[in-house]
Write a structure and sequence with these properties.
Elements: H1 3-6, H2 15-23, H3 30-33, H4 35-38, H5 40-45, E1 48-51, E2 56-59, H6 62-70, E3 75-76, H7 89-97, H8 113-120, H9 127-131, H10 134-148, E4 153-155, H11 156-161, H12 163-173, H13 177-186, H14 191-195, H15 200-226, H16 233-243, H17 250-281, H18 283-291, H19 296-306, E5 312-317, E6 321-323, E7 326-328, E8 333-337, H20 338-341, H21 377-394, E9 399-400, E10 420-422
Parallel strand pairs: 2-8
Antiparallel strand pairs: 1-2, 3-5, 4-10, 5-8, 6-7, 9-10
Helix pairs in contact: 7-15, 10-21, 12-17, 13-15, 15-17, 16-17, 17-19, 17-21, 19-21
The structure holds protoporphyrin IX containing FE.
Amino acid sequence: ASPSARCPFHAATDPEIARAVADFDVFEGPFTVDPAAAMRLFRERRPIFFSPKLGYWVVSRYEDVKDVFRDTGTFSPANALEKVTPSSAEASAILASHDYAMNRTLVNEDEPAHMERRRALLHSFLPAELEKHAPMVRRLVARFVDRFVDRGEADLVDELLWEVPLTVALHFLGVPEDDMDVLRRYSIAHTVNTWGRPSPDQQVAVAEAVGNFWTYSGQVLDRMRLDPSGDGWMEYALRRQRELPDVVTDSYLHSMMMAGIVAAHETTAHATANALRLLLEDRKAWDEVCRDAALIPNAVEECLRLSGSIIAWRRVALKDVEIAGQPIAAGDRILVVMTSANHDGRHFENPDMLDIRRDNTTDHLSFGYGAHQCLGKNLARMEMRILLEELSRRLPHMRLAEQRFDYLPTISFRGPDHLRVVWDPARNPERADD
Ligand code: HEM
């Protein structure tokens, strides 16, 4: 039987819910406008349902989402990087011509291999190690802000939020300066290729870029191998490979080189754009942050809760199991909607309200939860904190320009394509050349 036929609610269901389930679409309609609001009906009245359009069970309540993340023995992350829209024959041929072999990284690896690797490679993510990157992040942010601070208007996505996390990711991995520009060019938005609905033309263009990215990543890695003494995560991983060749394999290193950039770049860029949009739409919150920078870390968490950059993530059931009383069969695919969980009134009081002093906001699930919880979360938090510190100090009077916000429709990643702000440069508390 199809998963929907097994659903005990399916036959005798409320027509409003039956319609909402049938219409549920992550690429069109209400979910693309405001995913958390679009999930409200389900969160309240049908916490798990099978979406026929998507082919996944969709889970929406905080405790259920957390339970799925927690139990990696039952809910495998093996499908986390699967293409939502299968490759066209032409795109597949292009990738094959580059010997493209992106394999298991950390995020889609099952136990026990996953934990062994995660432990082997954890060192670069320890707070003391991450702190070493803070001056570089601040210098970088200052350099980009200098370029537009006296102008009076900017698109913060194009002129700051896209570039900073990409450059930080490349530094974090240990990519030499000379190679950064090439990798930067190839790392075009291929999230659309994995999590979105690319057109046939886009598929071909992205396949070319991904193929080149793959080949070049391998070359950078080969050069690093000659002298892996640097501070980057990849150099550290190459040194670990000498001690643990069966845990840190060549194929894994090659995949990680590419996946690391994807994991660190767009996630952080989108999350910061979402945070700035939320804060600037709530002038009182923004003004408070500008007056007292000590509020920024909790404000960052609250923005990640309300409008995280990864709104949903995937798992596949390894055995027959139940979620919220609903039987799920081995092999069924599951979409856990973290942005819905983060708006669940069972866990967060006044869940739709921005409260930068909320005391349990760090319980949000925007970084996932459990064994696979985002390894880079503290790097992302640091970047977001520094970006907000610099912008609130140098442009406290900026406001959102009149604009329509557009979001690329994907199953997982969410952030506005542009974020236009305006201000009066005569009121700047300091000048670019101070
Ligand atoms: C995994 C979100 C930034 C590296 C994940 C997962 C999510 C996530 C949802 C999957 C969690 C799970 O399956 O339970 C985010 C968000 C970010 C961000 C929202 C920015 C705001 C970063 C950065 C890095 C990074 C800056 C740095 C390199 C990773 C890695 C994993 C991961 C390596 C795999 C961990 C594992 O499976 O053990 N992230 N991430 N992420 N993230 Fe992030």
